[in-house]
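Weekly puzzle thread! Below is a chain. First person to post its structure in token form gets bragging rights.
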Amino acid sequence: MYHKIRDISKQHGYAIKDEVEWPESPIDLFKEYSLFPFQEEAIENWEMNGKFGTVVMPTGAGKTYVGLEAIFRTSQSTLICVVTEELAKQWSELINEKLSYSPGVFTGKRKEIKGITVGIYNSVAKHIDKLFDKFALIIFDEVHHVPALTFKEIAFKAKAKYRLGLSATPERVDGNEHLIFMTAGDIVYKISYIELMKAGFLAPIRHHLIYVELSDDEKRRMRGEILIARSEEERRLVERKYALKAKAKVDKVLELLREVGDRKILIFTEYVDQAEEIYEKARKEGYRVELLVGRTRNRARIFDRFRKGEINIIVTTRVLDEGIDVPDADVAIIVSGSGSRRQMAQRVGRVIRGGQNKIADIYEIITRGTVEERLSRIRRRGLSPFKISLNRRL
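Winning reply:
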């Protein structure tokens, strides 16, 4: 809000005398990474705007490294706000590795405050009275997905002079994107998937729609459960469950693995038991595969094995939907998913990194004649920023 008032006053010819006592707490950092030219341009635009503004890049373009560079160039106390604990962990590990600094973590379970602190939005909002005057820089990660009330609680109360918003799309579902621009700053840099693909930074996409059918037994059991459902909502949930968990989907995954099984593959499901079944059957057929679900420990080890090629298939649930940094894959098999456009864009973003001499293949398995056909149409809108070639397998 301060920045908006200052800028409007200047536009109307008023002289501004800044007497705000901004938080300042210098920190020593050592940088161990390099940026792509487009990331350099983004951070330079942000600096020229007084280290205040929003950077918009597609999923897979490395927004986190823009954030790291903002921290390094500011070298002041910094709060990074993220959506989930998994993202907090990822940011913390990256700061430790790339800036040689062990950050504090501020989540539901931990309340550490250090020169650099990574916090979950909800936890930061609840304790903003403790945190509001401790940081010179705030980074709002995935800012377009934060509930308006939570975002306002932090953005309006925090005293940080320097602010960076990171977003794949500045448009919000609730239409409150003006809150982002008012408190994190207007867009100072924006680049599209198409631009990055043409420059060779992100891969082109082939999207394959593959259809399966419910078995006669599944149809019979589904009709029986629908008959005894007590509400329309319960009936919809029954149909959704049978559509997303059709047994033919598992067989289709194994069929696809025989076709593309030597590539680096991420298999996405909505259900843990479905992921476990696919993992077990793929393992028995001799594929180099790991299972990654919510309770999985040693995730770093799984990613390291995937990176080294010791395994080439990861079967997962929603764990990888939230911007988690995954070693480059080039095939995504979507066995089941929600109707969320965001989820679809995030899953596609896992396989488009490293664009040179690479094509990303997205296989989406859909149960014909069920609610999943509608869900698929909705989530495919999440691919609108991407240039894709569509292939239907009937």
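Puzzle host: Confirmed. Bonus trivia for everyone else. The chain has a mean pLDDT of 85.
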